[in-house]
């Protein structure tokens, strides 16, 4: 990847500096020679050895540049194939729940200039931070590291919906360490990037789900946080449970049963709206969701506790 990164930067520079002036001199030189052949053919023929040597030396830079282009293009094709291979491995490990192996794989390419690698590295860093065995100190470092990778991914490709999504997620995570004022101050930035992610890819259920979380968070914001929000914004961020519910349902329509937390939040949102029948339906789905990750297990436990609370009250 280091080679690929250098080539990506080097090639445009090489093309900008060498071909322009060199080819213009070469073309002008050819025109000059053509005129000489026509007007002074006897002089050219009379000094054939000099002409051959001149022609040979004129051809060598062109041949050298052509060879450079061939090798450079081959190197780029190889580098692109290498990136695709890494992305395939990364996606396989992610789907398999191999969080630590995924992080180890991607950190080898942390100097990459490829946005697809960088946002996956941001996600992997965050996933490692979420593991129960990660200390608080390590978690903070990983969260900050994840934000840096996500920021670089966005800088490399502003058209990447995933880069927008993970940049917003990582800003929110870092806000947990910067205090409630910073977290609220970042609220509109986070919303903006989630909305951009949805605009770029309306079929990404996760981005829609995250927009639902944003709405749910501001719908249940405590009064003292609302006061802080009013101090920071002329129009403080706000939302409703109905709006959150709309996003959670939309995410489920795009990709049914894609995420245990979406099921849980559908149940919790219906609880907030005092619809116990639908709350129980979605909480049961969350409890019965196959656990692939630690988060899934935590969600199963929370859903079961909420359902137990139902039966205790009845």
UniProtKB/TrEMBL annotation:
Entry keyword Zinc-finger: no
Cited InterPro entries: RMD1-3_a_helical_rpt (IPR049039), TPR-like_helical_dom_sf (IPR011990)
Subcellular location as annotated: Cytoplasm, Cytoskeleton, Spindle pole
GO cellular component: mitochondrion; mitotic spindle pole; spindle microtubule
Residues annotated as signal peptide: 1-16
Major localization listed first in the record, in broad terms: cytoplasm
One MF annotation (Gene Ontology) recorded for this entry: microtubule binding
Gene3D superfamilies according to UniProt: Tetratricopeptide repeat domain
Keywords: Cytoplasm, Cytoskeleton, Microtubule, Repeat, Signal, TPR repeat
PANTHER family: REGULATOR OF MICROTUBULE DYNAMICS PROTEIN, REGULATOR OF MICROTUBULE DYNAMICS PROTEIN 1
Quaternary state and interactors: Interacts with microtubules.
Family: Belongs to the RMDN family.
Protein name as catalogued: Regulator of microtubule dynamics protein 1
């Amino acid at each position: 990847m280091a080679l690929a990164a250098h080539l990506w930067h080097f090639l445009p520079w090489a093309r900008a500096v060498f071909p322009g002036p060199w080819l213009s001199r070469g073309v002008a030189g050819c025109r000059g020679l053509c005129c000489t052949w026509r007007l002074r053919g006897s002089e050219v023929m009379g000094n054939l050895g000099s002409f051959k040597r001149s022609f040979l030396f004129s051809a060598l830079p062109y041949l050298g540049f052509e060879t450079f282009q061939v090798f450079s293009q081959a190197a780029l094709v190889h580098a692109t194939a290498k990136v695709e291979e890494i992305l395939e491995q990364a996606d396989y490990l992610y789907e398999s729940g191999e969080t630590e192996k995924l992080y180890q794989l991607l950190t080898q390419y942390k100097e990459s200039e490829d946005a697809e690698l960088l946002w996956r590295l941001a996600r992997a860093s965050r996933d490692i931070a979420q593991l129960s065995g990660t200390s608080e100190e390590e978690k903070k470092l990983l969260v900050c590291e994840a934000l840096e990778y996500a920021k670089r991914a966005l800088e490399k490709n502003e058209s990447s919906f995933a880069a927008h999504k993970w940049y917003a997620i990582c800003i929110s995570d870092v806000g947990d360490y910067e205090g409630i004022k910073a977290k609220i101050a970042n609220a509109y930035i986070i919303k903006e990037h989630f909305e951009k992610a949805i605009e770029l890819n309306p079929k990404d259920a996760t981005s829609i789900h995250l927009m639902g979380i944003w709405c749910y968070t501001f719908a249940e914001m405590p009064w003292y946080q609302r006061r802080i929000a009013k101090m920071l914004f002329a129009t403080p961020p706000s939302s409703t449970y109905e709006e959150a519910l709309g996003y959670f349902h939309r995410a489920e329509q795009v990709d049914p049963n894609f995420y245990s937390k979406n099921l849980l939040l559908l149940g919790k949102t219906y609880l907030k709206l005092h619809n116990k029948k639908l709350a129980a339906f979605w909480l049961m789905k969350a409890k019965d969701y196959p656990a692939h990750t630690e988060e899934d297990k935590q969600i199963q436990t929370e859903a079961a506790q909420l359902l137990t609370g139902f039966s205790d009250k009845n």
